[in-house]
Hints:
mainly alpha, about 80% helix
Amino acid sequence: MHQFEKLKVWQKAMDLVVDVYKATETYPKEEKYGLTSQKRRSAVSIPSNIAEGSGRNSNQQFNYFLGVASGSTSELITQTFLSKRLELMNTSTMRNIVDQCVEVSKMNLALQKTLSKKNLNTNSKR
């Protein structure tokens, strides 16, 4: 079991959630249950899945939830591009969120690789 609060990827993902909430504050009211809600849920899903996976009993299960977090990150990037196309956000805000997503995604992948190596080492010692 890992202490997710100490994981840099979780901390960065939490910062990303805050920025997504701030960016969607100005979305039109008719998007409240549409893109605003969807972006916020995708963003929240990233650190939530990292935390859930860290509480599981194995690195293999943790790796699975990191994969789910990775999918949510890609989903958020898509929704951010769509927000820009719909002129709901400016280029600077879009770039900031996408850049943070890319950073979280890279950190997530590095953690997945580390867990996979630990899992391989554990299995080879049996």
